[in-house]
Amino acid sequence: MVVQKNAEYDIEIDGMTHDGLGVGRIDNFTVFVEGAIKGEKVHIKIIKVTKSYAVGKLLEILEASPQRTEPFCPVYKRCGGCSLQHLSYEAQLEFKTNTVKDNITRIGKLENAVVHNTIGMEEPLRYRNKTQLPVAGTPAKPLIGFFAKRSHDVIDIGSASCGIQDELSSEITELIRNFISKHGISIYDEKNQVGILRHIMTRVGFKTGEVMVVLVINARDLPARKALVKELTSAVPQIKSIYLNINTKNTNVILGEKNIKIFGSDTITDYIGKYKFHISPLSFYQVNPIQTEVLYNKALEYAGLTGTETVFDLYCGIGTISLFLSEKAGKVYGVEVVEDAVKDAKRNAEENGVNNVEFIAGEAETVIPEMYANGIRADVVVVDPPRKGCDERLLKTLVDMQPKRIVYVSCNPSTLARDLHYLDQNGYRAVEVQPVDMFPWTHHVECVTLMSKVEK
Question: Is 411 an active-site residue?
Answer without folding.
Answer: yes
